């Protein structure tokens, strides 16, 4: 049991802190779910990348620093503690990149990763379809073989960032005759500006186009943009969604910083005693998440893997995030309804947490069946 | 004892439901949020025709009131149909002016009430001072045994229960939760009234709802009622159909004196009750829509409404709403501060919980503004906090207790 | 909408209050789940009965006052506000008596009810069996026809009060060949001291024998102790359990008084601000339950019936009761663990609320299916 | 960074699990509750042989400590097996005497520690004064900027963080949550330290656990440590295996001076950590038994463990326990007051929630004392509240914050 960092890690922390102190914008950028905010966040990615801070855990040859998991955690703590902007490249970095590292070719990595690291290409995910939300195996969009590649057709939705992004990745049915619906799916990357792609932005609750529908009509994708073997998409994607729920989506630093902001708000509001326990729980929860993650990272560093316990992780942060924001709004009292107060966008964002990346109902089923060994029900 | 709606009251609810169901309120809400008040004003006129704006106003001013139970009935329907506009505020303005008239200041009533009742005058209202502080602990607590500092001494028992004497007691004392608290163990018995909390008092929002649409922006400040001449820029709420703006200082004074503060307290209870009823209606609509949705939405080959986790969450939603409902009617019968506060807390929380449930069970589609569900989802939380946050209401409930909670007639 | 009482009801309230003021024991009786406490509570029933306060809603000829539902509610408010003892005859009065009124014969009523009203005969319920808890249709105990009556055999459990009670009532399988398990059950009364009955008290969490197992070995029950027609037991019992969940089991007066005690405790403990919201919620909840009940009683008085909404009622009070007691224990701090403090027994008792009279899981299923019209799942 | 148990620590847990699994602890608990300590003492001796009582004690006194992580490991197993007796109290007594020796008072250590380590001396401990007040708001708040009234001035930054300087800072200041709070907005900045709350201070229970079984009843009162000569009548707890009694006044003084208060603070953290670990163990055992039960118990023709509502409730139970676990190990590494308090609050609440779940899902059979489940069920709530209720722990967490929560090394 050891929570100390190496001298290298401490030096890395100091370097990150110093860089962030010098570079983090003094005023928050506009919402990244707006066109102007998207551009500002893309510019911030370039600024990060210029000093190799955008993808610290990647190999140096793709723009990273070969940082191990503990240095990644250190960076995230410093990043959010510094109040740095949200990451517009999050989907690419945390979902697509791990897949490319595990299942892509060297050619694909060399072609895709550097522009992802610099924010030059921002990636959107394209998993869901109208009739396939929690039930991904029900996907219908198809990719049909053509000369030198595939033609994508169908209807994707809830594609985060797609309103302003450049490229996307997702699963497409390449073998409609496959024995089981999980089979016959292929993992593909495609261009959102390609002929045949129609992007229809969808406003979330606060009206901002945080995601989009994609209508695909014979969109050509060259063979080089297939990840892994055709027909293996489900297996590859499951590894990716495991990652999505695991370490890489919600770093502890994010919640440590949020809890800290909540404590400041509580103090500013006169330490309202009726909210004391909830504020303390936010602090305790952030610390618990930090330490839970440290244990997972330690297992990972020791050669272990993250399995169904990533569902615990997802349940925890998604509910934590809502509770934290609700507490903040309560501290604001009637001012909490103002859309221009600093907690408003985070609150709206938090509400999506229990829905995406596998609804919390599904996650609880997984925890009960895989971690506790309870019988599968009809749900 | 017949704690049920009468046939007439039920018919009134059905009539409003039918009228609003045909009025395309969803389009009116969306237009309202975009600053186009035309369709909303059309609904407003129909509400006037249905008599909604006459419920707080006595016959002398062309009303039929005060009818708080009917107000609850109406506002549940307004919530169910997500009607936009300063609804509770107009009702409360009617109550304020009526009360003021009863206390001897009838000029503003004569001038404004007929327009309010007829639907031609959409009003909004801000009570800025001595407006309800937003945390219970920060409520002024007079020294042990003394009466409320500015109000008349309370008649009655050794432990005064201001609500018991009259259905409309001194509004100000009630609004600020200043019922005398002589018992031992209360905080800071020897200190000045405000000792025990150096907390800043966030106070009310200080903004008027939909001032840009209203024909009359009424502002109560201390013992003065005035008609603001304009307002500052519109600030968006988490519900875009709630447009907030700070009234300009100055404007035309309408009345001055202790009666203003008393009438403002009465109006604040009326506003809280109406808002609570809207919360209940919003929650009921969200539940109804979600029940329909989970019956038809299938995942894993079966309607998600057959999953036990979904069923239980919806059952809990119904439970909270159905136990908030009688609190509303009970509060309408007494208009006591503590009763209104209890109803407001319960209905506000139940409506918001219904929104959380509706969003979760709709999944991603519920998170979009284009699904009409969003029109209700976004209302739930602002309504929960307007005219008394749950925390403030809970504090008022405790402040309003006598030596025993007591039964109906006990 | 009217919450006022008639002059008669007010006079009734005053009379009850006055009587209770003069008669309620100054110190709490010993726990009724002990032999000595049971006897003391039985004596209290006799004292109530002597002045016709034990069963106010019954007809006068059985010891009641013909009180309508509103006078019953008034009595309950006054009863609990006065801090009067728990009712050892509760099972008989609220479960068996309504059944006898609806399904019994006049001979049965005349024979059974007066001694129930006086506490001379205390009744236990005998519904559950080891393999039939929530699933009552799975009952196995049987009644076999014999000359002039029936012979009961089998194993009942969770029989409240049976450790010290005199008689019991329950369902027994009289037709093992019936087409459905719900059919072929018969509602019977029997003597707990009859030959063939073995009562084994079961200690609840605090060790007190709040219920018992009953082992029945050819226990003779005369025909006169069959309620309704043989084979109709399920239908009759369902009416009874509806009652158990409805108005007659948990009167609002009980929770109004409990909330009042909680407020007093909170004040005594210095109005701990961290508990303020929970104390207020206890007050609000008691009032909500009172008014919800008033609405139900008004519908009932107007000729309506209580249907599936009794499940809402049961969910509400059972969870309310636990939360209220947990709040009290929290206000007591470390003293809360003392078994001799005044909230301890109520806390232990409250924990059973979500389990008996149909578990809360079943109640939620009922609410979802019958009130919201959701499809039956496999659960 | 390797935030995992070592192989040795895991082997220690397994060895205790095996030993306790063979020891019929259920019978020992039942006997203990009935006042028969014989089987419990036998378990106690085996715990001594396994080295449990040596973990808080340094080698100079025949121990192997201080080893807080191993203490957590051991106490999770003690909780999992529902072992009776003054477990956390004996460990804390060991910590107290060891600390006192390090501060120059080694006579009591020499006299008592070898017996504690060897299992021959079962100890219990009460810290009566200036014992932790039970509500956070009632904690003494020194005037702005001043240090804790009796402790040494805090070294360091503008916002002193007493925990940062040392893993074992002044125990007393920490125990009473009196870290200086200079920031604006704190309650009653100009009043006397206790203004802002006229609340009575319930204080600790003032009772010793299992004094009737213990060989040494240690009492800390202010700056005095004494060995009580006897105790009052045994009061039953909601857990009959926790036997509470008030130590007699007087007895033999063992040490006097500021070191006593400091060592008592250290011991209180040790006790809180051990109790929290027991809570986790109790919760894990309850979860494990309930999972087994719902797999085999059928209703409506199917195992109740296949019902989604049952599955989700158990999933939530696991979630709370698994997020409390790392807080325990983290607190063991720092022994900071705030970290121990966070672990105590989380583990205590998770253990109690597990008890509520276990009871509900077992149904009536879970409500009986004869099912062994009751042995764990009844422990969960007293453990949650002993050595720091959740409310008090949450207050300590907030009191212990610096300007930012900070990372591991930040």
From TrEMBL, chains A, C:
Q: Which cofactor does this sequence's record say it needs?
A: FAD
Q: Can the keyword Oxidoreductase be found in this entry's annotation? A: yes
GO terms (molecular function) for this protein are: flavin adenine dinucleotide binding; oxidoreductase activity, acting on the CH-CH group of donors
Return the GO cellular component terms, semicolon-separated. plasma membrane
Domain called Acyl-CoA dehydrogenase/oxidase N-terminal: residue spans: 6-120
Start and end of every Acyl-CoA oxidase/dehydrogenase middle domain?
Answer: 124-218
Q: Which PANTHER family match?
A: ACYL-COA DEHYDROGENASE (PTHR43292), ACYL-COA DEHYDROGENASE FADE29 (PTHR43292:SF3)
The record's similarity note reads: Belongs to the acyl-CoA dehydrogenase family.
What is this protein called in UniProt?
Answer: Acyl-CoA dehydrogenase
Automatic annotation (TrEMBL), chains B, D:
Domain of life (superkingdom): Bacteria
Domain named Acyl-CoA dehydrogenase/oxidase N-terminal: residues: 6-119
List the signal peptide residues.
Answer: none
Q: What's one Pfam family here?
A: Acyl-CoA_dh_1
What are the entry keywords? FAD, Flavoprotein, Oxidoreductase
Q: Which GO terms describe its molecular function?
A: acyl-CoA dehydrogenase activity; flavin adenine dinucleotide binding
Domain named Acyl-CoA dehydrogenase/oxidase C-terminal is located at 269-397
Enumerate the residue ranges of region (Disordered). Answer: 124-204
Listed cofactors:
FAD
Give the record's family classification: Belongs to the acyl-CoA dehydrogenase family.
From the Swiss-Prot or TrEMBL record, give the protein name.
Acyl-CoA dehydrogenase
Q: Which organism is it from?
A: Streptomyces purpureus
């Amino acid at each position: 049991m050891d929570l100390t960092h190496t001298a290298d890690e401490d030096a890395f922390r100091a370097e990150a802190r110093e860089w962030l102190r010098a570079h983090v914008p003094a005023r928050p950028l506009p919402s990244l779910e707006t066109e102007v905010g998207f551009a500002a966040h893309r510019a911030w990615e370039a600024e990060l990348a210029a000093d190799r801070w955008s993808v610290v855990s990647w190999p140096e040859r793709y723009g990273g620093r070969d940082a191990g998991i503990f240095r990644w955690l250190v960076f995230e703590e410093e990043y959010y503690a510094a109040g740095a902007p949200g990451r517009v490249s999050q989907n690419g970095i945390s979902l697509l990149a791990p897949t490319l590292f595990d299942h892509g070719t060297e050619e694909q990595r060399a072609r895709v990763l550097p522009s992802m690291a610099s924010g030059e290409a921002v990636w959107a995910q394209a998993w869901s379809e109208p009739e396939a939300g929690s039930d991904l195996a029900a996907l219908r969009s198809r990719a049909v073989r053509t000369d030198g590649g595939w033609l994508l057709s169908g209807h994707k939705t809830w594609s985060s960032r797609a309103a302003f992004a450049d490229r996307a990745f997702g699963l497409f049915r390449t073998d409609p005759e496959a024995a089981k619906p999980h089979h016959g799916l292929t993992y593909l990357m495609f261009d959102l500006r390609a002929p045949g792609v129609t992007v229809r932005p969808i406003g979330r609750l606060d009206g901002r186009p945080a995601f989009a529908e994609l209508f695909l009509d014979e969109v050509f994708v060259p063979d080089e943009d297939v990840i892994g073997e055709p027909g293996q998409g489900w297996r590859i994607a499951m590894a990716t969604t495991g990652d999505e729920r695991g370490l890489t989506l919600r770093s502890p630093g994010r919640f440590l910083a949020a809890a800290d902001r909540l404590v400041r708000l509580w103090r500013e509001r006169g330490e309202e005693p009726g909210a004391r326990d909830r504020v303390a729980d936010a602090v305790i929860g952030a610390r618990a998440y930090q330490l839970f993650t440290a244990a997972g990272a330690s297992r990972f560093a020791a050669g272990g893997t993250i399995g169904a316990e990533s569902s615990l992780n997802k349940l925890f942060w998604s509910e934590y995030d809502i509770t934290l924001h609700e507490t903040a709004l309560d501290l604001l009292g009637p001012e909490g309804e103002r859309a221009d107060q600093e907690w408003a966008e985070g609150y709206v964002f938090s509400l999506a947490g229990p829905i995406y990346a596998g609804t919390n109902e599904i996650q609880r089923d997984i925890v009960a069946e895989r971690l506790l060994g309870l019988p599968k029900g009809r749900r | 004892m017949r704690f049920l709606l009468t046939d007439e009251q039920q018919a009134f609810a059905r009539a409003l439901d039918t009228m609003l169901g045909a009025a395309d309120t969803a389009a009116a809400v969306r237009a309202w949020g975009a600053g186009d008040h035309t369709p909303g004003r059309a609904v407003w006129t129909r509400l006037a025709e249905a008599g909604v704006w006459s419920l707080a106003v006595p016959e002398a001013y062309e009303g039929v009131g005060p009818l708080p139970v009917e107000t609850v009935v109406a506002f549940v329907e307004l919530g169910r149909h997500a009607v936009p506009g300063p609804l509770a505020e107009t009702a409360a303005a009617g109550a304020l002016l009526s009360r003021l008239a009863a206390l001897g200041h009838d000029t503003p009533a004569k001038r404004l009430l007929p327009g309010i009742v007829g639907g031609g005058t959409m009003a909004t209202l801000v009570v800025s001072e001595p407006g309800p502080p937003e945390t219970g602990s920060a409520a002024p607590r007079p020294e042990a045994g003394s009466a409320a500092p500015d109000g008349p001494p309370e008649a009655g028992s050794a432990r005064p229960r201001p609500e018991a004497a009259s259905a409309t007691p001194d509004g100000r004392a009630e609004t600020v939760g200043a019922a005398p608290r002589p018992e031992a163990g209360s905080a800071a018995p020897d200190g000045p009234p405000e000792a025990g909390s150096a907390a800043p008092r966030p106070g009310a929002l200080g903004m008027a709802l939909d001032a840009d649409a209203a024909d009359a922006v009424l502002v109560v400040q201390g013992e003065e009622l005035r008609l603001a001449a304009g307002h500052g820029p519109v600030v968006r709420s988490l519900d875009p159909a709630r447009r907030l703006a700070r009234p300009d200082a100055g404007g035309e004074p309408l009345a001055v004196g202790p009666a203003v503060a008393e009438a403002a307290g009465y109006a604040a209870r009326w506003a809280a009750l109406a808002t609570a009823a809207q919360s209940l209606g919003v929650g009921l609509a969200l539940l109804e829509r979600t029940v329909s949705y989970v019956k038809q939405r299938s995942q894993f080959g079966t309607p998600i409404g057959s999953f036990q986790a979904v069923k239980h969450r919806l059952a809990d939603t119904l439970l909270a709403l159905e136990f908030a409902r009688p609190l509303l009617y009970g509060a309408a019968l007494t208009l006591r501060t503590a009763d209104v506060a209890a109803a407001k807390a319960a209905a506000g929380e139940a409506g918001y919980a219904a929104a959380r449930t509706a969003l979760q069970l709709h999944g991603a589609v519920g998170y979009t503004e284009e699904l009409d569900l969003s029109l209700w989802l976004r209302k739930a939380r602002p309504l929960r906090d307007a005219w008394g946050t749950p925390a403030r209401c809970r504090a008022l409930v405790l402040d309003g207790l006598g030596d025993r909670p007591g039964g109906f007639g006990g």
